[in-house]
C-alpha cells in the first residue's frame, strides 16, 4: 500500500488526470503547464512514477486511470488509520473529536453509517 502514497504536488497532478481521463499525454502536458507551471519533462517524469505505482497507465500516448480517485483515497484513509491507530476506527474518531466536536448532523450521519455498514 505504500506505493499509493503521494506528496501534495503528485496529488494535484493525479487530480488533473482523474478529472480529465482518458486524455492524451500531449493534453496532460498542456494542463500541467497551465495548472502546475511544469515543463514537459517534469510531467513525463511524474507520470512515469505514478504509472510505476500502478495508479495510471500511459499506453500509446493515452493516459488512463487504473484506480479511481475514490478507491485511491479510500486506500489512503485505511492505511492512515492502520498505521496511526492500529486499525481502530474508534481510536481514530476519539482522537479526531478531542479537538473538534461533531455537529448533531455529523453524529446522525455517523449513526446511519454504522447502522448501514455494521455487522448485524
In short:
With 120 residues, the protein is mainly alpha-helical. 67% of the residues lie in helices and 8% in strands.
Rg on CA atoms, Å:
18 Å
Q: How many extended strands?
A: 3
Count helical runs: 6
Class of secondary structure makeup = mainly alpha
Spatial strand sequence of the major β-sheet? 1-3-2
Percent strand equals 5-15%
Q: Order of helices and strands, N to C?
A: HEHHEEHHH
Top keywords for this entry?
mainly alpha; 6 helices; 120 residues
Description of the molecule:
The chain has 120 residues and is mainly alpha-helical. It is built from six helices and three strands. It has helices at 8-20, 25-36, 40-52, 69-85, 89-99, 104-117; strands spanning 23-24, 56-59, 62-65. A three-stranded antiparallel beta sheet has the order 1-3-2. Helix 1 (8-20) packs across helix 2. The longest helix has 17 residues, at 69-85. It is elongated. It starts with 7 loop residues before the first helix and ends with a helix. The mean pLDDT is 92.
Amino acid at each position: 500500500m505504500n506505493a499509493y502514497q503521494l506528496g501534495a504536488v503528485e496529488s494535484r497532478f493525479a487530480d488533473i488526470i482523474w478529472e480529465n481521463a482518458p486524455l492524451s499525454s500531449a493534453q496532460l502536458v498542456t494542463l500541467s503547464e497551465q495548472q502546475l507551471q511544469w515543463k514537459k519533462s517534469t510531467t513525463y517524469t511524474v507520470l512515469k512514477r505514478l504509472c510505476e505505482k500502478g495508479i495510471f497507465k500511459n499506453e500509446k500516448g493515452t493516459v488512463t486511470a487504473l484506480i479511481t480517485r475514490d478507491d485511491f483515497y479510500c486506500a489512503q484513509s485505511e492505511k492512515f488509520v492502520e498505521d496511526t491507530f492500529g486499525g481502530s476506527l474508534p481510536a481514530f474518531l476519539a482522537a479526531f473529536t478531542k479537538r473538534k466536536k461533531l455537529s448533531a448532523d455529523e453524529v446522525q450521519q455517523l449513526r446511519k453509517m454504522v447502522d448501514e455498514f455494521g455487522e448485524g
